[in-house]
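Students often ask why we bother encoding 3D structure as a string. The short answer is that it lets us treat folding as translation between two languages. Here is a chain of 278 residues written in the first language.
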Amino acid sequence: MSYKTRKIINRIMLTISVITFLIGSLFLFWILGDVFLKGIRYINFSLFVELPKPPGVPGGGVANAIVGTLILTIVASLIGVPIGMMIAIAITEYHLGRLAWWAKFLTEVLTSFPTLIIGVFVYTIIVIPMRTFSALAGSIALSIIMLPVIAKSTEESLKMVPISVREAAYALGVPKWKTILRVVIPSASSGIVTGIMIAVARVMGETAPLLFTSFNNVFWSLSLTKPIGSLTVTIFNYATSPYDDWRNKAFASALVLVTIILILNIVARIYASKKGKR
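And here it is in the second language, the structure alphabet:
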């Protein structure tokens, strides 16, 4: 293939890539713009500090749902992050042979699993035996969704650490477990943190599994053994309601949720960029 032909093909592929990027960006900014324009008008102080009003009564807020979302996300992270990182470490650092292959395979399968199925699974093994919806069940469902994202991002980050870094630690007599904790993981921390932030942002936008696990609660609830409110379920209920005030609050709540997710992604990218420069 001549140089001129390769150059033409390169320009064609570059043009196609730019066009697809612009199409994707168009839909992204269209969605963000629509949520912003419809939600910004109903953002007020009471939205963040008041409980929902009864159906048909104007006013109130979604403070319980904001707190509930934070509780669900924190508990899910406490469960999912350590397990996901340990799976990646077992696959990458300890080379468990066939077991590592199966762990990697099952992690990839879990990535494509419908979150609705995960919600039904947790409903079967936790909600039914407990005989109640609960924040714990919702957190477990979200942690299962987080697992493959964290495991995959951690695995790829650990693979990027040069083998010479490990060998230098071994040459100084550092045990393998301490090399992983003190040398390998800090060296791959930018990618690991980015993966965790992406996983957190993903589960914060999940609705289907929470309908079967944590359900919803229009009152203050900080207990892990009782139903708890969440922004996604609140948005779902408000957006499908016949009341204009509730539908307006759905857009305002969606704007709050999108803003939180955008901030998490931006912080993760900035952290990864600064860590990479160091």
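Translate back mentally: The chain has a mean pLDDT of 89. Keep this in mind for the problem set.
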